[in-house]
Amino acid sequence: MKRDNGSHTKNPIYGKIRNELIAAKTNLRDRLFRPAQRITPQALSLRKAKRFHPLPDVNLVGLGIGEKVTSNKRTGEMCVKVLVAKKFPKGKIKSADLIPTEIDGIPTDIEGVGYPTKFAISQQQRHRPVPGGVSISLDLNAVDFRFAGTLGIVVVDKKDSQRLYALSNNHVLADENRTKPGAGVVQPGTLDGGKNSDQIARLSRFVPLKFGNRRNWMDAAIAEFDRPIDVDRSILEIGTPSGAAKPSLGLSVRKSGRTTGLTEGIVRVVNFDVFDVEYDQGSVRVDDVIVIEGIDDSFSKPGDSGSAIVDPKGRVVALLFAGSEKVTFAIPIQRILRHLGVRITT
């Protein structure tokens, strides 16, 4: 029987991960990570600026067990995989900082992957200037709890083009009729870290909601921006709306919302009267709405309330206000604009 006593024993990737591989990974991790734990102000500054440097405390991302890649080809061999922010030529790295080609007889492989950071949906971040499609809420002076909904679109007063408003739902901007005009609105919403100092607008007016399954035609409210100069009239990831239009059966639509971001769907039902929508203060009925199904997944989830529904021509057709696990309900936009005396800015 032929034995290979060399240091490059093959470790097929589809086999069980051997103890030797785990021990080698642990050994190398402890050698590399201990210096990296003593991260310096210089290293922190470089990482924050996304500038690369071969020092381990700057460059090391982590270690694991994976498949060795040589000349951009997968070899089918298991190795200790070392991920770094940037893979530098050997001549750029001090000899003491070089990662060995093998550890305890197990090959290593180095791959540059960039600096790691938490993933956070853009719609939940702070935006200045403020576009549509992003997280908003009342401030903590208006309500004593943290929440977030969506700023649907920027609209302008029909009688005074200098007055700009954030359009969303009553239950987002007016707390189901319980908040008085003048209440502060912050972006991002308080659930996403917004503070009173992040105020962008004040509640201007809203359409009162009726509970107990009495008929409603809309769930809508507007808040006037404090500084029109800090407003972006576009919708995040969609662009500037081209106007308003009536929704139709089978229409392809998109929306940008606080929770699910940019999603696509199809209008499956029109002239729909929805009953028993659960609100804090009771059951709500809204007549003559549309029903949307998502194409790949849910079109919306909690926190997307207030999102503008946009057709392929960039026209806003509806305002999202509720949904279930499978469908989304939205109010035709032209009805809302007429009632509130505003128009879409283009």
Could you walk me through the main structural features you see in this protein, from its secondary elements to its overall organization?
- The structure is a single chain.
- By secondary structure, this protein is mainly beta.
- The protein folds into 2 domains: 94 residues, no CATH class; 223 residues, Thrombin, subunit H, CATH 2.40.10.120.
- Helices cover 12% and strands 40% of the residues.
- It is built from 5 helices and 22 strands.
- The chain has an 8-stranded antiparallel beta sheet with strand order 7-6-10-11-13-9-8-22.
- Strand 8 and strand 9 form a beta hairpin.
- The radius of gyration is 27 Å and the shape is elongated.
- It starts with 18 loop residues before the first helix and ends with a strand.
Query: Total strand count, please?
Result: 22
Helix count? 5
**Class by alpha and beta content:** mainly beta
| Shape type | elongated
Please list the strands of the largest sheet in the order they lie side by side: 7-6-10-11-13-9-8-22
What's the rounded overall pLDDT mean? 92
The proportion of residues in beta strands is 35-45%
| Helix content percent band | 10-25%
> How many strands, what sense, and barrel or not for the largest sheet?
8 strands, antiparallel
Order of helix and strand elements from N to C terminus: HHHEEEEEEEEEHEEEEEEEEEEEEHE
Under CATH, the topology of the largest domain is which?
Thrombin, subunit H
- The value of Rg in angstroms is 27 Å
N- to C-terminal distance: 79 Å
CATH architecture of the largest domain: Beta Barrel
Task: Return the CATH class of the largest domain.
Answer: Mainly Beta
Low-confidence region ranges: 1-9
Organism: Fraserbacteria sp. (strain RBG_16_55_9)
Protein name: Peptidase S1 domain-containing protein
Pfam family, one: Trypsin
GO molecular function, one term: serine-type endopeptidase activity
